[in-house]
């Protein structure tokens, strides 16, 4: 049966071209590009948003209406449908306000900006505001190589300017954004990021650091072995465990260690800032590695991240590229200690929930402190230990061998004596760390010694003939596992870098052996 030509003409007249604008949403810590599209059809006037939009996007309808009306726009008497594609996963974020408003305001015009991403929350008066998701979104899109140009709130440029390789069109009001989409009178900006402190240039890449030591190693009296181990841990970003009586200086060393860590690259500064934004913090973009020290009563969800509907990051993510310090290590729950094995080995954390599955980077230096027994006096000469053998055994058994195998350096602290003095300051130690860092990077290493995988260990941790003989003897005598051998080589590599040796010698390997865990 042939169609009525009059009805066909009417249908053609009702067809409206679908305009689209690119935006994005966060899925865990990774950005997903989203196409925002809108249609205007005859029917009962209405305004709906579809495509698994969250509550904050549904509320955008009221913000968009108010912003358009206060700026002199008259809503068309049509059914407006906004779709967020693809529609098979949930979207969230107030930054969808601006692209939705632009599609409605420009419904009679053609938008030809395929590679232009648009982000911004709208005030009721039409001002374009920033949001906490903006920095992680744009950084993730840039890391994926899918974004070159973006319309963003002008107030967000204070931190978005640190993300290189993107041309920005900052706007303050909805009217400015409309004029930009029409192609009138605005030019993009390509800001250059700058960081405080000093910098190193290695292989065309910049690394930044600060010479600031609010807590100085000169304040640590005695503990020469522990300070030497702390220097090695910092130079190679090795995991480090200190055991000793209460008050001997374990926490002092851990807190001062963060100020002598190696320089950071621009990518690392941005990754640190990304996790801080996801946690609701405003980063300062200083070249300083983060320091996190959760209490031993902290829950597993607060340390590793969690949530019933949307997985949130935890302390291990906030310590990314920095230091995670556990004081009173055996008092942490067994679940936390065993779950920590995954990020210590793989440098990633996976959170699986019914509604979300998230994987995020957690590449940090783990530092821990513990007492030798529940009362803390087992190693003391002037105090008597009150613990039974069963209590001491139960206390130590809270730390499993697989967990302890992932720690490179073990130090038993000495008792503090009246004549102890500070022997070295943080500035001197930091200078040695930077020299070792230079040798690692000039050797072509992507990662520092403590984070090398087994293939990289074979490539960079080369032993001379005498050191190889010592290693073979140690394997037989101490029944070293493969993980222990790799750990031993990495520590010896850092010791060789501290003195400027190209190959690992006998002396460096013997010192690395001295930092091994003694089974008790």
TrEMBL record:
Residues 425-516 form the Mg chelatase-related protein C-terminal domain. InterPro entries: CHLI-like, Mg_chelat-rel, Mg_chelat-rel_C, Mg_chelatse_chII-like_cat_dom, P-loop_NTPase, Ribosomal_Su5_D2-typ_SF, Ribsml_uS5_D2-typ_fold_subgr. One of its GO terms (molecular function) is ATP binding. Residues 216-418 form the Magnesium chelatase ChlI-like catalytic domain. It holds the Pfam family Mg_chelatase_C. It comes from the Bacteria. This is Mg chelatase, subunit ChlI.
């Amino acid at each position: 049966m042939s169609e009525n030509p009059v009805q066909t003409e009417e249908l053609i007249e009702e067809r409206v071209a679908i305009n689209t604008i690119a935006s994005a949403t966060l899925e865990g810590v990774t950005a997903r590009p989203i196409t925002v599209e809108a249609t205007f059809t005859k029917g009962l006037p209405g305004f709906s948003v579809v495509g698994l939009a969250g509550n904050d996007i549904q509320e955008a309808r009221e913000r968009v209406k108010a912003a358009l009306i206060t700026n002199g726009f008259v809503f068309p008497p049509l059914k407006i449908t906004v779709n967020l594609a693809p529609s098979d996963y949930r979207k969230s974020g107030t930054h969808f306000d601006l692209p939705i408003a632009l599609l409605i305001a420009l419904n009679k015009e053609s938008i030809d900006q395929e590679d232009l991403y648009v982000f911004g929350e709208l005030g009721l008066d039409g001002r374009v505001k920033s949001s906490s998701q903006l920095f992680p979104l744009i950084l993730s899109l840039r890391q994926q190589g899918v974004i070159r140009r973006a319309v963003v709130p002008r107030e967000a440029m204070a931190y978005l300017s640190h993300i290189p390789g993107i041309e920005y069109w900052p706007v303050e009001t909805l009217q400015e954004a409309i004029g930009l989409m029409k192609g009138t009178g605005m030019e993009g900006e390509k800001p250059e990021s700058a960081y405080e402190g000093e910098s190193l240039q290695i292989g065309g890449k910049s690394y930044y650091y600060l010479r600031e030591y609010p807590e100085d190693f000169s304040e640590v009296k005695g503990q020469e072995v522990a300070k030497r181990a702390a220097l090695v841990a910092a130079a190679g970003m090795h995991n480090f465990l200190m055991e000793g009586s209460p008050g001997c200086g374990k926490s002092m060393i851990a807190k001062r260690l963060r100020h002598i860590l190696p320089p950071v690259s621009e990518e690392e500064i941005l990754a640190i800032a990304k996790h801080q934004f996801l946690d609701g913090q405003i980063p300062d973009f200083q070249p300083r590695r983060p320091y996190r020290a959760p209490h031993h009563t902290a829950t597993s969800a607060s340390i590793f991240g969690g949530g019933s509907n949307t997985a949130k990051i935890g302390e291990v993510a906030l310590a990314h590229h920095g230091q995670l310090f556990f004081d009173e290590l055996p008092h942490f729950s067994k679940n936390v200690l065993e779950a920590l094995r995954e990020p210590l080995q793989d440098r990633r954390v996976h959170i699986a929930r019914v509604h979300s599955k998230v994987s995020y980077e957690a590449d940090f230096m783990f530092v821990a402190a513990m007492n030798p027994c529940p009362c803390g006096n087992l190693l003391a000469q002037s105090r008597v230990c009150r613990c039974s053998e069963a209590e001491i055994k139960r206390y130590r058994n809270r730390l499993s061998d697989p967990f302890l195998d992932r720690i490179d350096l073990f130090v038993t602290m000495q008792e503090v004596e009246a004549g102890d003095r500070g022997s070295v300051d943080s500035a001197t130690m930091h200078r040695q760390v930077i020299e070792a860092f230079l040798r690692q990077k000039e050797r072509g290493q992507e990662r520092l010694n403590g984070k090398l995988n087994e293939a990289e260990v074979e490539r960079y941790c080369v032993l001379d003939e005498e050191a190889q003989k010592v290693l073979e003897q140690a394997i037989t005598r101490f029944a070293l596992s493969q993980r222990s051998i790799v750990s031993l080589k990495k520590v010896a590599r850092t010791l060789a870098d501290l003195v400027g040796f190209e190959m690992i010698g006998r002396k460096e390997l013997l010192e690395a052996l001295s930092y091994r865990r003694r089974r008790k």
